[in-house]
Each structure stands twice: as structure tokens, then as C-alpha cells.
Amino acid sequence: MKVEITDVNSTRKEMKVVVPKEEVNTVTNEIYKDISQKVVIKGFRKGKAPRDIVRMYYADYIQGELSQKLVNDKFEQAVKDNELFVVSMPEIQNDPPRENEDFTFSAKFDVKPEVTSQKYTGFELKKQKVTVGEDSINDVLKRLQETYATIRDMEDPEYKIAQGDYVIIDVTSEDNPSLNRTKMTVEAGVRSGFPGLEAAVIDMQQGGEKEVTVEFPENHFLEDVRGKSASVKFVITAIKHRELPELDDEFAKKARQGVEGLEELKKLISEDLRERLEADTRNALERQIQGKLLESNPFDVPESMIRLQAGMMIQGMSQRLTAQGIKLEDLYPDPESFKTETLASAEKVTRTALLIEAIAKEQSIECTDEEFEEEINKLAQRYNMSADTVREGIEEQSGIEEMKFGVVEKKVYDYIIEHSEVEEVDQVEEVTDDASTDSSGADE
């Protein structure tokens, strides 16, 4: 077999293959033998029909099988022999193969780019300081209190509505009777279906009445009042007060299993907050590095790779949304805009991954067996599963290489951070990436 490969551009190649007639005849004989053993031709025992008779009945099938088998097998062999990393379906051109003649075909295809990193150290990076204050801990405690709050009807006529109370009101409007409502719930100081009522009910009492002007935003769920205003009257028919539990040792035991008291709960909350903030800080630092890597290392990427990555990202997002009972088209009703945004994000993901791979190769950074097992054990601990079960699940999803790449990626970022200037600051201002799409495909 003769193979000639030429460059169309830096990421696309054209291959011309000439298959000797001897190999063409060998494959042809195999096809004839296979057909004759499977089909029954009237007047002949199975497998005994002459070649000319078989050709008369199955000429088109034989021609198609011969062409497909020669192209597929010889293209695959040529790719392997020449150590090519093909990332697109090949565009094949060929004349019909014939017995006793050489068979020639050509193929155009994209290949994975050979990336040589130009700069990946000496960056000026900013890292946000990680501090956990009492206010942050108290915010978490407040949310925990709200989780375990009890709701009771307030029957005291002198009670004044406070923020967080659930207020039941009847609404009427002479301007727009379609706004009339009975038993409408307003969360005092927090939210209301009619903007402004959540503030208007504060400090009012059972049976109280008030008239207010409601300004409806352009994106309001009621189409006929979007961007309009209306005068409404409301009367308070019931007040439901949310009573928060006392912040004491008993509450701490209820809020978190295994905790003996409030101080221990605060300590664990502080540790959780610090861990989360450190993870956020690390992610922000990696995003800075990604931007600087892409800016400092331009190279060509075939569109086929970007489209493949975009498809994986959309599929992953669709699966996650479906699990939550949400349709992708409902969340992103403009498919063309969504496609454009996803392609832009996919290009950045693809370029970054290729650069990470190139840097890892240059610095001999790998994922050791011990590091891989450590990642397995972390997942097992997080999901309270055995390490063997986690490993089996990852193998079933063909995720071994992806997990190993995640370890390598982290080590590459560690190397870049170690060889760059990192300044700790109180706040890091990030540039918003409008094209970013939950890629994810490979984050977790």
C-alpha cells in the first residue's frame, strides 16, 4: 500500500492511498466467500454457486462492500502507520474498485494540532485574600435558623408586621380589575408578585388597609401590565409569623449531625466557609491563568474539534437540566444565540486543554497511580460510597482519562502559580465572559 500525505493547512491534511490489486483481489474473494455462504441461489447448494452467478445477483452489494471495506481498513491502517491523531470524519473521494486493478482513494481530514507553548510562566496574578468573619458565620446561622423556623398565625390585633412574615391580603384595583386577587401571599420586606407590596405591608396590623401604586417591570410575568403602573388597594386578612429557633446547643445538635454544641457548629461553619472561599479563590486564579495562556500562546485549532467540544457541552447541560425537570429549549429559547455562545466557550475550553497538555508534556507532569487512587478515595468519601463502587462507575462512563487529565491540569496550574508573581488583594475584579456556557463537560 502506497500512502502520500500533504498538508492542506496546519491542522488539515490530505491523504492519497493506492491499494495494490493483489490486496483488492484478496478482499474481493473474502466478500464473495461470505456472500456465497450466507445466501441461497435457486439451482445451487449454499456456498456452491459460481462466482459469475453470485455477481449477477449481488453486483451492487459487492461493489459497495468492497469500496467501504477497502477505504475503511486502509484509511485506518494508514492513520496508524503514520501516527496521525484524526479529529474529524474524513472526506473520501474514490472511483469504484475493480478486480485485478489497483484501487486509489483520497481523504481530507482534520488532525489534532501540535501545540508548542510559547509562554506559561512569569505571569502577574492577583489572588483574593481568604478571610472568614463573624458576619459570614452569622449569615449561615441565620439561614439555618430559617430552615428550622416554625410558622404560626398571629392573632394579636396589635402585632405589627415584621420582615420575613407571610402576609395574606385581598387586592382590588379599579384601574385594572384583572389584578384583583384574594388570599394573595406577600413575604414582608422580601418579595411580592406585585412589586412594592412587600415594603408596603411592613408595620401594618391585622385588618389594615392601604392604597399604593404598583410599578410593573418590563419583564413581569403578567404580559398585559408589563411596563405599566396601576393603583391597587389591599386589606390584610391574615399574618403568619416565622419564629426562628434559639441559637443554643440544642439547635446546633439538630442543625448538624454529630455536633455537641453551638461553638462546635460555629467552628465547622467557619471551616466550611474557608474551604469554599479557598476553592472560589483557586477557580478565579485559574481563570486568570487561562486568559493569560490564551493571550500569550496563539495557535490554530480545527473547527471540527471546537464543534465536537460544543456538542459535548450542550449534551452535558441538557442531561443535567433534564434531571432537574427542565428543558434546554425553555432555558435558552434562542437556539442560534445559544449555539454561538456555546461555540465561543467551546473554543476557549479546547484551546486551554491543548495548552495544558502541551505544558504537561514539556514539564513531564503526569498523574501517578497514587494520585489517581487519592482522587477516587476523595469521591468515595464525599458520596459515602466504597472506592471500588466509585471506580466502577467512572469506568462505565469511560471517565478514567478525564479524571487523570483533571489531576494533570491541577498540577500544571500549580506549576504556573509557583513560577509567577502572585499578589494577594482584598478583591479581584474579573472580566465577565458573556460567551461562557456551563461546560462543563469536564469540570466535575
Task: Lay out the secondary structure.
Blueprint: E1 2-9, E2 12-19, H1 21-38, H2 51-81, E3 91-94, E4 103-110, E5 124-128, H3 134-147, E6 150-153, E7 166-172, E8 181-187, H4 197-200, E9 209-215, E10 229-243, H5 249-255, H6 262-296, H7 303-323, H8 328-331, H9 335-362, H10 369-382, H11 387-396, H12 400-418, E11 421-425
Parallel strand pairs: 5-11
Antiparallel strand pairs: 1-2, 2-4, 3-4, 6-10, 7-8, 7-10, 9-10
Q: What are the main properties of this structure?
A:
444 residues, alpha+beta, Alpha-Beta Plaits, Chitinase A, domain 3, Trigger factor, domain 2, five-stranded antiparallel β-sheet, four-stranded antiparallel β-sheet, elongated
Textual characterization of the structure:
This protein is an alpha+beta fold and 444 residues long. A hairpin with a 2-residue loop joins strand 1 and strand 2 (12-19). It has helices spanning 21-38, 51-81, 134-147, 197-200, 249-255, 262-296, 303-323, 328-331, 335-362, 369-382, 387-396, 400-418, and strands at residues 2-9, 12-19, 91-94, 103-110, 124-128, 150-153, 166-172, 181-187, 209-215, 229-243, 421-425. It starts with a strand and ends in a 19-residue tail after the last strand. The radius of gyration is 34 Å and the shape is elongated. The strands form 3 sheets. Strands 6, 7, 8, 9 and 10 form a 5-stranded antiparallel β-sheet that branches. A 4-stranded antiparallel β-sheet has the order 1-2-4-3. Mean pLDDT is 91; it is low at 434-444. The longest helix has 35 residues, at 262-296. The protein folds into 3 domains: 2-110, Trigger factor ribosome-binding domain (Alpha-Beta Plaits); 150-243, Chitinase A, domain 3 (Roll), CATH 3.10.50; 279-425, Orthogonal Bundle (Trigger factor, domain 2).
